[in-house]
Amino acid sequence: MTSLAPVVTARNDQEAWWRDAVIYQIYPRSFADSDGDGLGDLPGITSHMDHLAALGVDAIWLSPFYPSPQVDAGYDVADYFDVAPEYGTLADFDVMVAAARAVGIRVVVDVVPNHSSDQHAWFRAALAAGPGSPERDRYIFRHNPDGPPNNWGSLFGGSAWTRVEPLTGRPEDRDWWYLHLFAAEQPDFNWDHPEVREMFRDFLRFWATRGVDGFRVDVAHGLVKAPGLPDDALGADRWRGFAVDEDGASVPKTADNGPMFDQPGVHEIYRDWRRVLSAIRPDILLVAEAWVDPPEHMARYVREDEMSQAFNFDYLKSAWRAADLRQVIDTSMEANAAVGAPTTWVLSNHDVVRHATRFGYPPGSEPDGGIGAEDPQPDAALGLRRARAATLFALGLPGGMYMFQGEELGLPEHTTMDDSARQDPAWLRTDKQTRGRDGCRVPLPWAVDAPACGFNTTGLSWLPQPEGWDGYAPAAQETDPDSTLAMYRRAIATRREWRLGRGEIQWLEGLPGQVLAVRNGEVIVVTNTGDEELQLPLAGTVLVQSWNGEMGDRADTVVVPANATVWLAAS
Ligand code: NOJ
Questions:
Q1: Catalytic residue (choose from 76, 86, 218, 424)
Q2: Contact residues for 374 (Cβ-Cβ < 8 A; gap 6+)
Q3: Which of 67, 196, 459, 556 is least enclosed, having the fewest CB within 10 Å?
Q4: Helices vs strands, H then E, count in the chain
């Protein structure tokens, strides 16, 4: 047996609530719509707090609900200290937090510090004030007559630089550009500027004193850029899954994170934030959204005086293969243990193809940029079966678990959305080459045979819901003990009861190659990633299983069907 201890160094946050928390991501625009305008809102969240309580999650994390032109669904913030009118008011926020508290659920909000909206007062002032002004110094403006100041590409396609003159119409703005790693409407802040630093300290204080228990940090690896903004060795190819050599052939990308990401200077910002938050409450969560290689670099973000956790995107990206999953689990747990941090597990979020759909493709060919009606379609039943197995395996591991709204219903991606309905800037900025993320953001179904499947009462929906969507509604699953919802509830409750999130794992060796099997305290967690049923020499009483049908336990063997997970209470 190979033993993996989650924590090897002593830290003062050993008892912190987030170490083993199950955190449920709410995408406010698509969760529930109380006023019928087709957009979800904060009162909609409050009205479904019973669903979240019954699910048993420890916390909810809300994607941005701040005032925003919604060019990037709220990740373009125009005012960091208010609620967007279409989502409600600060009073609605307070009511929602109180409702969550009342059922023992904590609240985490998104902080978007890499960029603002171009409609933020500071960017408007910057454009108005002209070249060389102190107002422009809060963002990244550069003068270059020969074209964009460097070769960086926007993650949403095209150059990361936009010309200023067409926006202001002023001749002195000729050959001036501003930087935006995402859409042109999302200008990057200059984090060398003390006012930028102070504004985000104020942001943290404002929301933490309003009762927030944590912050999910958007683009946490991007705030500080390499001095002098040098060219990127990969240019705009960085954002494809591959690079292209001079003959146009695909070549694997190098592992460096580029001059725009993972610069050493970001860590001082998070140390500063930790000091700010510690002065309010010691256990406030900071979780990094940082797509950084290798795992040892990720681990730097979760040193004791920085953030609490980072999303484990290597796990999310792993193919449905036992060896790949095991390797990611080992390397991520080891890298985190070296700094005394728990790892996290995440399979879906608002930026990726939902895992019930991803796993409906052959292992290794999972799509990652959205799916259209003409693309190869997934095997939906297989995808859901594997998704349930993958979730149940992840919930059996120590550390934090992040889940995305709707995955507890087994929701798939909308893979046949009409292209005319798409709203993701990635779709528009890539000349409609990358379909983007709309397919995972479709408004949730709540009721059967109801307008917009119970998302609201008017039937409006900002993205179209596919045929049969109401079959996934909680109302359709509530009384079915074999439903995906029932499995999630049972698994979360059992995980808490057996303290699996706080455990340590040992791999069980000597089993077939398609099997992942760990012992976590008194529980054995076994997944069969293969396509054949297996009879395994493991004993125990079944606590939770991912498939519908007979429990396969006997005195000395357990039968695990293809693409399935079971938890056994070791005897
Ligand atoms: C990551 C967010 O998750 C994504 O939705 C957003 O588009 C980018 N950061 C830019 O803020």
A1: 218
A2: none
A3: 556
A4: 16, 21
Q: Which residues pair with 544 in a beta bridge?
A: 567
Report the nearest-CA residue for atom 4 of ligand 1: 351
Cα–Cα distance measured from residue 206 to residue 80, given in angstroms and rounded to the nearest whole number: 9
Cis ω before 294 (30° cut-off from 0): yes
Superfamily in which the 17-116+212-228+266-385+404-477 domain is placed by CATH? Glycosidases (3.20.20.80)
- Ligand 1: distance of its center to the CA of 351 in Å? 7
Cβ neighbours for 466, distance < 8 A, ≥ 6 positions apart: 414, 416, 417, 442
pLDDT at res. 354: 98
Q: Which residue in this structure is represented by tokens 């001082």?
A: 268
CA distance 336 to 303: 9
pLDDT in tens, 476-529: 999 999 999 999 999 999 999 999 999 999 999 999 999 999 999 999 999 999
268 catalytic residue (yes or no):
no
Q: What is the pLDDT of residues 39-88, one digit of tens each?
A: 999 999 999 999 999 999 999 999 999 999 999 999 999 999 999 999 99
Give residue for tokens 């709220």.
74
Q: Which residues of the chain have pLDDT under 70?
A: 1-9, 241-255, 551-555
Q: List pocket residues of ligand 1, CB cut-off 6 Å.
A: 72, 75, 112, 182, 218-219, 289, 350-351
Half-sphere exposure of 109 (CA within 13 A, CB side): 27
Is 35 one of the annotated active-site residues of the chain?
no
Q: Region of 261 please: left (phi>0), alpha (psi -120 to 50) or beta.
A: beta
What residue ranges do the domains of the chain occupy?
17-116+212-228+266-385+404-477
Closest Cα to atom 2 of ligand 1: 218
- Which residue is closest in CA terms to ligand 1's atom 5? 351
**Token code pair at residue 184:** 């042109």
Distance 196 CA to ligand 1 centre (A): 19
